[in-house]
Amino acid sequence: MKVPTDDFLITMAWCFLVTILVETAVLLVGLSRRHSVAVRLFAGIWLTSCTFPVVWLVLPPLFADRARYLLAAETFAPLTECLLFWLAFLKGRSFDGLLVRDMIAIVAANLASFLVGEWIW
Predict the structure, then answer these.
(1) Residue 12 phi/psi, 5° resolution?
(2) Is 1 a member of any domain?
(3) Which one of 30, 52, 55, 100 has the largest count of C-beta atoms within 10 Å of its C-beta?
């Protein structure tokens, strides 16, 4: 197993912060109003914290080319975050437009952070 270098860890930390900022901003606006601002802020930090290490540390060694890695990572992150959010905040609620809005907001947050990451890359 290859140990990450200091440069890699510093880059990862900065990207983690940027991801949290971008995704939290999208979730503050995008998640339905049935969730308090505190829940929306928490979701931006918590959801990213759950998926970011997998996207940065676990998935890259599994894929030889960038396209397959991106497909896996950018599918894994929003699906996992939608599931975690549903389990934490929506389980037991009826399927409605607000639930759909919340899931779209989570996918949009991931897309936004991906696009910012690609722009920086």
Answers:
(1) -60, -45
(2) no
(3) 55
Listed residue (109, 23, 114, 112) closest to 70, CA to CA: 114
For the chain, how far is it from start to end, CA to CA, in angstroms? 25
Distance between CA atoms of 106 and 88, rounded to whole angstroms? 14
Separation CA 82–CA 63 (nearest Å) = 24
Q: Which residue range(s) make up the domain with 113?
A: 6-120
Query: Residue 28 domain-assigned?
Result: yes
- pLDDT tens by residue, 17-32: 999 999 999 999 999 9
Residue 116 CB-half CA count within 13 A = 18
Q: What is the pTM of this model?
A: 0.91
